[in-house]
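In this supplementary section we document a worked example of the pipeline. Step one takes a protein sequence of length 654 as its only input; no multiple sequence alignment statistics are reported here. Step two produces a three-dimensional model, which step three serialises into structure tokens for compact storage. The input and output of this example are shown verbatim.
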Amino acid sequence: MEVPGQGSGQPTVPPEPGNETPPPVEVSPSGAAQGNEDGRLRPGAKRVTFPSDEDIVSGAVEPKDPWRHAQNVTVDEIMTAYKQACQKLNCKQIPKLLKQIQEFKDLAPRIDCLDLKGEKLDYKACEALEEIFKRVQFKIVDLEQTSLDEDGASALFDMIEYYESATHLNISFNKHIGTRGWQAAAHMMRKTNCLQYLDARNTPLLDHSAPFVARALRISSSLIILHLENASLSGRPLMLLATALKMNMNLRELYLADNKLNGLQDSAQLGNLLKFNSCIQILDLRNNHILDSGLAYICEGLKEQRKGLVTLVLWNNQLTHTGMAYLGMTLPHTQSLETLNLGHNPIGNEGVRNLKNGLIGNRSVLRLGLASTKLTCEGAVAVAEFIAESPRLLRLDLRENEIKTGGLMALSLALKVNHSLLRLDLDREPKKESVKSFIETQKALLAEIQNGCKRNFILAKEKEEKEQKLQQSASMPEITVTEPLEEDPAEDSRDSSATSAPEEGEEPLLTLEKRISVSSPGRGHKIFVVTRVESLPERAANASQNPALAIKPELLAPRANGTIPEAVASLATPSIGSDPKRGDPAVCESSAHDTPLPNGLKTDFARALPEASSDGDGKMGSCTAEHELSCSKNEQELEELLLEASQDAGQEPL
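The serialised model returned by step three reads:
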């Protein structure tokens, strides 16, 4: 019996009882099933059958191995493949790239860097690079300022994602990668497990591109460091990024400088981010418009940071004493913040006073930046009170402030009782004073501050070595520094210190076997710092017994105009019989007064004033002015001179 329409002539087997199958379905050309009442198909109808489950999958094809070209590859093979690709695509070879290929040595696992910075990469040039990416991987791929367009950027980012070409990628200063470029970059961020660092400075991330990046950051991304300086983030892009980062548990460093972030919506988004994200350790907000109103939002987020944020950079955000009041109330609640940079904000003396109690109540801050914050001697006294109270402060930057003799005296005395501060940055050149001898006094005080930092440095090193012997560890946790102070990249050329700003990658501040040479953010001026470990000079044994070195507590407070009381000024100069080469800070620490000191200073502040120490070329500073002031003038003449000086100084603006 044949089935109509089959024409095969094969007999059919009648079904067994109970196993009858439903009648076949006739499919008409229009798709409607047609059949006779007896279940037979009409002539010309089609029959549909399905294979058994075991026969559905007939085979499988493995995906292409992205590294099939990288097996036992040689430099010559890479060079040949790249040249052939350029010839095929009719594009110019890049001489800088050819030179780098020739210098490739160990091709596994990753070569240090592929540097294409400044080379113009059009779409064809990007396509030719695939012959390199498919054969070798890199730690750093530098595409800074390569004039990438949407097509070229999309192609490159797809290659980097597919071949996992880099752990550190620099795409900065490419202003025309467009929406498709950012979309490909976001896909790369989401899919690449090896990408840890992305630098997109000066690469605008606009409203229509931000959602792609935000989606990539919300999903578990491998990124640890993200640079988005000057990327036009203010407004909706920042809102999308901040919302996404609330759920990101991998990102550790976020750099958002120069984005014109405002003190309202933008700062509110940042405050909310800090409330929910405790994984970000560095937040750099320098050169924005946070203002005091924005700082209030950020402080609300900081209060929730029981762990997480280690470094906060607020450099140049138009913050005033009002904002410092918010910050002062917040600092006692923060437990992880170690570096706080407030440089280049008009904080003023009142702002430092608002900040002082919060700093004293804080138990985590190790580095404080107050460069160019419009401080005078009055503000320096408030800072000195904090130094005296702090058992953990390591670094303090007070450059570019009008701190004169009175302020330097307070700082010097604070260092007598502080044993943690390893670096105190001050302008190298003394400030102008009406009394010429005060210039030499400033130099002597600066030298004494330097010696105090040297002493603390040696004590810290000895403590570390002792701990190493006891525990066989690399260094003590409370001494080891893992996060260097943020650096401001601009204006690195002014001359105001003894050491220059560190290069990127320099050893941390407190790796005690190395020199201390990490500068604060900002102008990177030459500053007055300890740059090497030297043996401390010995002070004469009778220094503590010299009555000229005793200071009455009521005379310590400097006047508002920057001058100091007459009796203190006369004692600030070395005595005639003293040896300027001798001076042991430990001896000075033994002399203290029981009478309470003004401005909350401890009685331990009543210490010997410093003697002039050697300057940079090894010669001793001139003490002629001090000798004339203390010896050739009688007491009445001295008082008249200082009175006249204080009146003149009072007319100068602070």
